[in-house]
Amino acid sequence: VWATYATIAGRVSTWSRLLYLFALTGSIVAAYVTTFRYSYLANANTRYYGWPVPTVIFQRDGPNEPWLDYVGPTVILAYPMNLVLFAFIPATVVLVSFFFHKRSQMQSRNATPASSDGVKPTEQVASDSGNPYQTFLNK
Q1: Which helix (H) or strand (E) holds 18?
Q2: pTM, whole model, 2 decimals?
Q3: pLDDT of residue 102
Q4: Rounded to an integer, what distance in angstroms lies between the CA atom of residue 33 and that of residue 80?
Q5: Which of 49, 72, 107, 125 is 20 to 30 Å apart from 17, CA to CA?
């Protein structure tokens, strides 16, 4: 959620934003394909539909036995769970990028430039403070 907010609000660079939106779109498609279109045999008697969170599991006792199905609560929750799993990596990359971007901004703000007029950068002349009452308070 925070990575999506940071991306949409423009708090990350443009290339990071485009990369995240591309990866998020890819994770939506990948979650759909692996949830509803992918099946595999765990062994000769167990068949899963959906990966990594399956929607339906079929099992049989032997090669000539009928397939018995197990339909659990993952039929409804498999797609959202797979989407969260697939979107986790792109979101983590955007949040790390956002963290380092903010960190570099804070370091550049805290850096004090060398003064050429002999006045320490931390000293402030009353007329330079931007406070109109500063001269009144100093009298």
Answers
A1: helix 14-36
A2: 0.61
A3: 73
A4: 13
A5: 107
Give the model confidence (pLDDT) of 84-121 as tens digits. 999 888 888 777 877 777 777 777 777 655 555 555 55
16, 23, 84, 112, 133 from 126: Cα distances, Å: 43, 52, 55, 19, 9
**Integer Cα distance of 57 and 76 in angstroms:** 14
Q: Indicate the SS3 state at residue 133.
A: coil
**Cβ-Cβ contacts under 8 Å for 75 (sequence gap 6 or more):** 55, 56
Query: How confident is the model at residue 136, as a pLDDT?
Result: 47
Q: 114 and 82 in contact (C-beta within 8 Å)?
A: no
DSSP element (H, E) containing 26: helix 14-36
